[in-house]
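During the no-cost extension, the postdoctoral fellow (Dr. R.K.) reprocessed legacy sequence entries with the updated structure-token encoder. One reprocessed record is reproduced below for audit purposes.
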Amino acid sequence: MPALTSVKYSNKKVKKIVTVSVIAVVLVVAAVFGVKLLLDNGVFSKKEDTAGNSFAMTDEMSQIVSESDLHKGYMFSRVTKILSEDPKMSPWILSWYVLPGTTRSVPEMQSAYVDTFDQILLLESYVREGKRSSAKTMIDAIDTSLTDESGYLLKFKKADELISEDQRPQVEKSDIFEDQSNLLLSDPPISMEATTRYLRALLDYYDKWGDSKLLTRIENLAKMIFDAGSKSSYRAADRAAKPTPIPVTEKTLVPEDFEEEPEPEGNTLVSVSGVEICAMDLDAMRRATVLLPEYKEKYEDMIRIVKEGKISSEFPLYAWMYSEEAGYTYYTGSAGDVELVPSLYAMVHLAEIGQMDEDGYAWVSSEIYNSGFLYTSYNMMSGAPSETEASEAYPLVLYLAVIKGDNDLFAATYNAMMRNYATLDTSVALYDFFRNADDSRIAVYARENLLMELILR
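Re-encoded structure tokens follow.
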């Protein structure tokens, strides 16, 4: 009996020890996980305040989205699958993908280019989602492959320069759907638009997780941007620009001696020194001056340059670029067509710092309410739109509506955007926004899908 009692007592003791050990292990694992979670969220990092801000949809806007056919949870995963995973381009995302037709003679096509601005939008999405590892991978990739020796970001890279073509599925490519400006250049030019947007993305990463090494990178990038000012080298071939016979650098809509000349055949290269108005990401610069207050005066000068770049109150789009020597250039080519999307970026940049362009906001609202469509360019003399719809414009107008808290404009613009949202179960583009490309083809572009992901998250 004593022996049996002893055994029984020992078994109970062993069970107790095992139970305590299991609890201890669980607690240690939980503690390690908790510390990792805190580290991932930068709790223990000493961070400088960059005065970041954000703009959220109103309850009514959220209801408009929730009651529509949009599947927010799938949009991002689907577009990255089509433009990154399937073509074996990770961590990069291609510019576009054209769906196959109904017959074998109409195959699928994909872009041969990686646009740097798209990669930065993808980085911003990772930061918003809290995907630190993916975000860090993208930062390292951009710094290694999309940055020139001076520290500026390049406008694009050919996909096979980043990942060997023999490592990817063989898919047909076509110059028809490419950005024609890319085809004119043997070497990609720098992009101030991408460079300043990258500053924004790095600030967002830093605000979320903190990183003293990254802070140094941010400060150096900001100094480079501010020191460049309006003297940044820019090759107008970015836009397949055609030489303007009468440079428009004064604030007049129509020069008295203006005579429209026929368009030259083909695209020609022109070289201009200056900076694009849309490249001045004012909110990123504002946040940078919190870290570098000595550049506050230059930041305020940037605001002035953007605001004075508005063509007029009646035609409140923005100049294409500015240089200290030539002043403002409102358009390229002889037709006097002003691009809409760069103008909308200028409006967004002003709105984000609390200086909404009310004329521009009223003008674009009128276009949405009256016609329901936005086009790539508008003629400075007649106001007539081009024939091509500007898919990238709708997310920017949505964002303006969010900043202003305008439920009516949000609803109208959202409805316009949803015209090109894929809901067919058998479609490769299911749950993504698409464009009607030439020859009745359907194309999925990274740009508007990533912008919508950032706005509607």
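The first helix runs from residue 2 to 40. The CA atoms of residues 202 and 217 lie 9 Å apart. The remaining legacy entries will be reprocessed before the final report is submitted.
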